[in-house]
């Protein structure tokens, strides 16, 4: 591992000690934000139907990567749509996942220190914390965004890092990650030394976490063309 990555987990912990005085001295549990706490995909589904006149349903999200699913188009079209969605601020209208508030409260009551680890970028980190504080007030210490690493404002509770979720969980000494992505679960739970493996609870009965895929094997074509290439069968 490059030397700068060896140092970053320690720096991450140092930043967290400034931005987020621990609400608990107990073990750390890292928790994903989208579709574990926030019904993000449901909100973006409703937005897509309103804007493009589609009949997308949550069950159409077969894969973690949007461009592999119906209605989204190719890779470039998908990125453009997601950018437009974030520009509407509707992601902050998303409702919490049913039972999430009660589950998080139970973990906090048991003495665990709870930190959100999300793939969201620096552009939305502040508003993401506002959403968390609205629906889960006083339950989380910090939000860590796995985007480009920057120094955090010492008065904020958001930290941005370019580390992977596996590296962040290792740096936090987390005893568990709760995530809805099979891809993230596999990466974190099978990490190679010197990164410590972190146990993962795969959350939710979602289509996208019942099958594995990766960005590397993406075919830059529309979903319907990939179906035709698979002799009319959906690529499960």
Structure commentary:
The protein has helices at 3-19, 40-52, 75-87, 100-109, 125-135, 165-171, 182-189, 223-229, and strands spanning 28-31, 113-118, 142-145, 158-160, 176-179, 200-202. Strand 2 (113-118), helix 5 and strand 3 form a beta-alpha-beta unit. By secondary structure, it is α/β, with parallel strands linked by helices. Strands 4-3-2-1-5-6 form a six-stranded parallel β-sheet, sandwiched between helices. Helices cover 36% and strands 10% of the residues. Residues 1-7, 148-156 and 227-236 have low confidence and may be disordered. It has eight helices and six strands. The longest helix has 17 residues, at 3-19.
Q: Low-confidence stretches at least 5 residues in length (pLDDT < 50)? A: 1-7, 148-156, 227-236
What would the principal axes of the Cα set say about the shape? globular
Largest sheet: 6 strands, parallel
Instruction: For the record, give the distance between the C-alpha atoms at the N and C termini, rounded to a whole number.
Output: 34 Å
Quaternary structure: single chain
**What's the β-strand tally?**
6
Chain-wise SSE layout:
Elements: H1 3-19, E1 28-31, H2 40-52, H3 75-87, H4 100-109, E2 113-118, H5 125-135, E3 142-145, E4 158-160, H6 165-171, E5 176-179, H7 182-189, E6 200-202, H8 223-229
Parallel strand pairs: 1-2, 1-5, 2-3, 3-4, 5-6
Brief description of this entry?
This protein is an alpha/beta fold and 236 residues long. It is built from eight helices and six strands.
